[in-house]
Amino acid sequence: xxxxxxxxxxxxxxVTNHIVSRIIFSSARLFWYRRIMQYQIGNQSSILTHFLVxxxxxxxxxxxxxxxxxxxxxxxxxxxxxNNVSITYGTSILTKGHDIDDPLFRTKGAPVVVEDYxxxxxxxxxxxxxxxxxxxxxxxxxxxxxDVDAFQVVGGNPATFIRERRQDLRYELDWDPWxxxxx
Length: 183
Prior knowledge:
Blueprint: H1 2-18, H2 26-36, E1 40-41, E2 46-47, E3 52-53, E4 59-61, E5 66-67, E6 72-73, E7 79-81, E8 86-87, E9 92-93, E10 96-98, E11 107-109, E12 112-114, E13 119-120, E14 125-126, E15 131-132, E16 137-138, E17 143-144, E18 152-155, E19 160-164
Parallel strand pairs: 1-4, 2-5, 3-6, 4-7, 5-8, 6-9, 7-12, 8-13, 9-14, 12-15, 13-16, 14-17, 16-18
Antiparallel strand pairs: 10-11, 18-19
């Protein structure tokens, strides 16, 4: 039974990453992600093309959240993303890796949490166990190795505090370039 489940899971992930993620119509991709992969995705949220994953399940996305092109989610542990979150292209969220101090090089990991109104800029890497607090901003190319407090702007490798962000955030994200508009 385990071999059958592994084969089915591997097949689903392969189809998701190499076929479904390339479909230009978001409604078809979202149907697959919700119904087949069993991701919890809120209304008005968009996942653009070339979205790569590691597992079925283990992804929860709030409402009005946008995940841009070419993002990779290593969802072997849960990834929870809040409402009105903008994740820019090329971002990787990692939940599992190897313990470099273990003589047997065993794996270890932890969930990642992204709270409401977070903006993750392009080509960011978020490591296992990180929580990004409400309204924080992660600047392009950053590597986030530890939690980021609410409304902080961080950047660099490793990401460090740069300044505070305004706290009166009220916007609702709603963008999907692959939905036709008919006036």
